[in-house]
Backbone:
């Protein structure tokens, strides 16, 4: 009779202990990393896009874009955004379109960068690919600029010069741009 | 003297016989002892880290002292497996990894737990650490208030990194940086 209340109290205390709140457990997660400087290059449409000489890029804002220069001949180009000029003295015509190159940097103390470009395949006879009047080839990167400013767009004009006697054909190149931190 | 010698000769074997014979008889006697053992099984909770299939493989996986190595990180370059780069802004970029926390409880009547985290030391220059978008400091921050026991709970670790050069307030480059995050689970 005398033990019953004590046993009940002990049971209640045990139950209360089992449901105790505020028990804690801890663990440690160690994070490590190594920051490296980097730069990026993207192509953007020129603010005059759509006007003559400024065709729209497909996938603008990335580093892998398309530029359609339409269909050209001695009589002109089917695409109104293409700047077409016929050069009788040089026995060729030229189509061109301008776009923007933007190079950004991160975690780098590089003051500026140099820009070069290379075409993917050798062009057929009487066809020349140029960037802002600098002729490109498929064997080496050709220097375009030596000290461009990060974060500022640089306007480049792609030109294709086609001899008047070049056979009808599709002209296609992949032009690789290379920005190198100075 | 002769008698004493005779008695000594007779007595010694007799004494030995008396000693040996009772020993052989008492060898069948057994004795029993008892140990009264007691174990108090206390309630408690433990926290472990598990790798997440969408994140970096943890060092010390399934332990309470794990490591997560982002490897080389940059705003534009390649990243290690399991590391993603959800954003690149003008002044900073973010790299991210998933990881799991499992809180194991024993002997508790607690329905769930509260998870908090804090940096063991201030973040290195140019870094902000976030778990589930909650910025961490050396003061404990609540990450989750109703975690489920005994199962992996996915969490997201974001490192916000300034893009500035080291000389302009950005993080050190080309140097391995390490920070420890302390996690605490508290039963509700």
Residues:
């Amino acid at each position: 009779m005398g033990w019953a209340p004590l046993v009940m109290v002990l049971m209640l205390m045990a139950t209360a202990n089992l449901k105790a709140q505020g028990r804690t457990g801890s663990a440690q997660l160690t994070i490590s990393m190594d920051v490296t400087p980097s730069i990026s290059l993207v192509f953007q449409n020129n603010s005059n896009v759509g006007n003559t000489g400024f065709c729209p890029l497909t996938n603008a804002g990335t580093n892998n874009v398309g530029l359609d220069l339409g269909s050209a001949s001695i009589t002109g180009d089917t695409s109104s955004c293409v700047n077409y000029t016929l050069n009788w003295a040089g026995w060729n015509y030229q189509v061109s379109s301008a776009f923007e190159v933007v190079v950004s940097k991160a975690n780098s103390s590089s003051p500026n960068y140099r820009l070069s470009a290379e075409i993917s395949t050798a062009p057929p006879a009487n066809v020349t690919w140029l960037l802002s009047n600098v002729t490109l080839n498929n064997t080496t990167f050709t220097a375009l600029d030596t000290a461009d400013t990060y974060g500022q767009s640089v306007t480049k004009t792609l030109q294709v010069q086609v001899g008047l006697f070049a056979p009808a054909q599709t002209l296609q190149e992949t032009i690789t741009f290379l920005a190198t931190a100075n | 003297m002769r008698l004493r010698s005779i008695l000594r000769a007779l007595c010694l074997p007799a004494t030995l016989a008396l000693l040996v014979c009772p020993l052989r008889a008492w060898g069948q006697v057994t004795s029993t002892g008892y140990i009264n053992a007691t174990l108090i099984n206390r309630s408690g909770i433990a926290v472990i880290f598990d790798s997440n299939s969408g994140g970096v493989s943890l060092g010390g996986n399934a332990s309470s002292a794990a490591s997560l190595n982002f490897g080389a990180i940059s705003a534009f370059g390649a990243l290690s497996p399991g590391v993603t780069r959800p954003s690149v802004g003008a002044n900073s970029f973010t790299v991210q990894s998933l990881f799991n926390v499992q809180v194991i409880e024993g002997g508790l009547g607690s329905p769930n737990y509260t998870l908090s985290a804090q940096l063991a030391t201030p973040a290195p220059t140019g870094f902000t650490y976030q778990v589930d978008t909650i910025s961490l400091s050396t003061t404990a921050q609540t990450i989750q208030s109703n975690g489920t026991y005994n199962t992996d709970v996915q969490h997201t670790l974001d490192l916000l990194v300034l893009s500035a050069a080291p000389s302009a307030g950005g993080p050190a480059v080309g140097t391995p940086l390490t920070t420890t995050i302390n996690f605490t689970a508290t039963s509700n």
Remarks:
- Residues 16-23 of chain B have pLDDT under 50 and may be disordered.
